[in-house]
What we know:
The protein is α+β, with helices and mostly antiparallel strands. It has four helices and five strands. It is globular.
Amino acid sequence: MLGLRTFFVAPEEDPWSATYDVHLGREHYRLRVLDGRLTELTRTAPDSPPDATLTCTDHMTMNALAGQVETLDALMERGDVAISGDADAVRRLINAVQKSQPTPAA
């Protein structure tokens, strides 16, 4: 989850604001994006309902999603990821994570 802060790139066009609850196994996080900037990433109890909830079976699933190794649709189809609330906001969050992929060795 800390990688989200590192790899989050604010979109130049069409910034958005949303509050997210992210569940990774038994761990719960609150994220807040304000005008396209990640302004909050905490493990505190939510103080209000989120715009969207993203539930991943574990950290490996979240890493695959954030690293764009697997698509959100494929992970949802397998049952490794679930979304409730604003699905477009979840897609924007995932697209804002610009984790670079390793280059294959020559």
